[in-house]
Design goal:
Strand content: under 5%
Order of helices and strands: HHHHHHH
Distance between the termini: 23 Å
Number of strands: 0
Structural class: mainly alpha
Length: 171
Amino acid sequence: MIDALQDFASSLPDFMQWFGVMLISAIPFVDSYFGSVVGVLIGLPPAVAIGVAVIGNVISMLGFVFAAHGVRSKVVAGRAAAAGAGAGGAAGSLDDSSSPRREKVRRAFDKYGVAGVSLLGPFILPSQFTSAAMVSFGANRNAVIAWQIVSIVIWGVVFGVAASLGVAWVR
C-alpha cells in the first residue's frame, strides 16, 4: 500500500507532490503518520512532508466530525420530539447496534476519555473514525477536534522524523 501511495505522490510534477501527500493523508488508515512517511520517501523536506500530511489528515477528520455531529444532533432532536409527543422513551443511546470495532472504541472512550482515545486511537482505528465515534457517543465536538489535532500532529511528527532518520541512515 505504501508503495502505491508513494508511486502516486511521486508521479505528480515536483511542484505538486506536496499536494499528493496532503490528499493521501486524508485517506482513513493512511492519516498523518503514513502520509508523512510517504512525503519523506518521495524526497520532500521533512517539515513540508509532516506539515502537509497533518493538514490533509486534519481536514478529513473535520469532515467526519462535523458529519457525525450533524447526524447526532438530528437524531437526538428527533427522539426528543418523539418523546415530547408522547411516543414514549427518552432520547437514549445512539449506539444501539454496534460493530465490534465501535464497541472497542466505546470501551476505550469510557475508560480513557476524549484525550486518551485521541492519543491512542491510531492503535484502534484511524483518526477520522475514532473522532466521529466519540462525537456520536456524545463527546464535546470542540474537545474532540482539539485533541484529535494534537494527536494528528504528534503521530505525524513521530513517523515523519523516524522516516527522515531512516532515510538518512540508509544513505
